[in-house]
Design brief:
There is one protein chain. α3 packs antiparallel against α14 and α15 runs antiparallel to α16. By secondary structure, this protein is mainly alpha-helical. A hairpin with a 4-residue loop joins β3 and β4. It has 18 helices and 4 strands. The strands form 2 sheets. It has a two-stranded antiparallel sheet with strand order 1-2.
């Protein structure tokens, strides 16, 4: 046997060992039960159940959403991956080649998208350019048409509004570039260890309303009591703070599912093979290995799904307006994609067991307003932490998914403004930029994909001994 062939054989044997489960062997289906036996039935703080979500997502919504996200309007996302970390002096970046992001040459991005992030039609493009010129001049000039003056004020109000849950990138910065999301998929890159831990630790310890003396389950150091103190604290806080933690935990779970489902299984000079790594999935979600945390994480993923699905059902009036287009410059394709978008939003609205967000920020108005502002600022801080992620591909998807969830929260807390949107003409009270729209649907696409991937892992584990 040639030396090269022997090396390949040893590598293949090493890969086989890597993919073997780390849990004890048992009867068929035992591995499945250890990850999923508690991920069933009703979810806490909701009237919905896991099985209803699985059937709705996997067989109705997921196929349509995937088709939408492959369209030009949703595949190109403008992002600044060069912003420095605002919280600690750490300029180290992942040197692994799979961490790299390949930006798009400008001529590959459709003209209608490159013309600006606020515009939804050819007419709106022309108007917006006039508006932006007026803003550069520093005043709402009386010589401008009434329509243009209103648009200038509208965008100024939008830019200065306090309804944003995210630290948005300046898309006009020289460092902001378009990225083709289909060519830079979210998957395992090898980014892990202290740097990755530092990101999530900062999010959980400093931004989830948790007192320092309450330790998270499985946190390093002494004092871990199996999560008893933590969950006693979590149960005792208000529904808003409990929901905040569950959203972050659900987002973390979703990202870990993506990394486990698209793992680098083979890396040779001739090809790379990506696919599901069962061991990686079990390390994160097996009930025994995670001391009960895995099933909780998966339930939080379902909670996150319900929150973002509810936002899609609420924002339908904004997209239903005749003047709104998913504008790329290709009229027939744009019209087809808007029809598909509306089909998805009507499908979201038809879901029978929506989360009831009316329990949020209820009671004393002054206290509710204060809590809502804390909620918003904590989430905005998390969006800033994404600029500290050392892996550029992880940073890309982290920024997109936090902006998407932030946009969903903005929608849920703008219900009164959305209800006042006129059937035609500008929606002065409520606005979404193209960046927010692309992030909203791609972020929900990631959550929807995670729910779908769980079915695949369930099937694999079911047949394992």
């Amino acid at each position: 046997m040639a030396a090269g062939s022997g090396a390949l054989l040893l590598r293949a044997l090493g890969l086989a060992v890597l993919l073997l489960p780390v849990v004890p062997r048992g009867s068929p289906g035992a591995a499945e039960r250890r990850c999923f036996c508690q991920v069933t039935g009703h979810l806490d703080d909701c009237t919905c159940d896991v099985e209803t979500i699985d059937a709705f997502n996997n067989y109705k919504l997921f196929p349509r959403l995937n088709e939408l996200l492959e369209s030009d309007y949703f595949r190109y996302y403008k992002v600044n991956l060069k912003k420095p970390c605002p919280f600690w002096n750490d300029n180290s970046h992942c040197g692994i080649r799979d961490c790299a992001v390949k930006p798009c040459p400008s001529d590959e991005v459709p003209d209608g998208i490159r013309s600006g992030s606020y515009k939804y039609s050819e007419e709106a493009n022309n108007l917006a350019e006039e508006c932006e010129e007026a803003k550069r001049l520093g005043a709402v000039d009386g010589s401008l048409s009434k329509e243009t003056q209103q648009a200038v004020l509208q965008w100024t109000r939008h830019d200065d509004s306090s309804d944003s849950f995210c630290e948005a990138d300046d898309i006009y910065s020289p460092d902001a570039e378009y990225v083709d999301l289909l060519l830079n998929p979210e998957r395992y890159t090898g980014y892990k260890g202290p740097d990755a831990w530092k990101i999530w630790n900062s999010i959980y310890e400093e931004n989830c309303f948790k007192p320092q003396n309450v330790k998270r389950p499985l946190a390093s150091g002494r004092g871990d009591d199996g999560g008893h103190t933590f969950y006693k604290w979590l149960k005792g806080v208000c529904v808003e703070k409990r929901a905040f933690y569950k959203l972050i935990s659900g987002l973390h779970a979703s990202i870990n599912i993506h990394l486990s489902a698209r793992y680098l299984l083979q890396d040779t000079w001739s090809e790379k093979k990506w696919g599901p790594n069962v061991t990686e999935f079990q390390q994160r979600f097996d009930e025994v290995i995670t001391r009960g945390e895995g099933p909780r994480r998966l339930k939080n993923l379902y909670f996150l799904y319900l929150i973002e699905l509810r936002a899609l059902s609420k924002v339908l009036p904004f997209f239903e307006r005749p003047g709104f287009q998913l504008y790329t410059g290709n009229r027939s394709h744009d019209a087809d994609m808007k029809n598909l978008l509306l089909e998805i939003l009507h499908l979201a609205k038809s879901f029978p067991l929506h989360f009831d967000e009316n329990s949020f920020f209820a009671g004393n108005k002054k206290e509710a307003a204060k809590l809502k502002e804390e909620f918003r600022l904590h989430f905005k801080n998390i969006s800033k932490i994404m600029d500290c992620v050392g892996c550029f591909k992880c940073r890309l998807w982290g920024k997109l998914q936090t902006q998407g969830l932030g946009t969903a929260l903005k929608i849920l807390f703008s219900e009164n403004l959305i209800e006042k949107i006129p059937e035609s003409g500008p929606s002065y009270g409520f606005q979404l930029t193209r960046q927010e729209i692309v992030a909203l649907f791609n972020a929900f696409g990631r959550i929807s994909t995670s729910i779908r991937e769980l079915e695949n892992f369930r099937n694999i584990l079911r047949n394992m001994r």
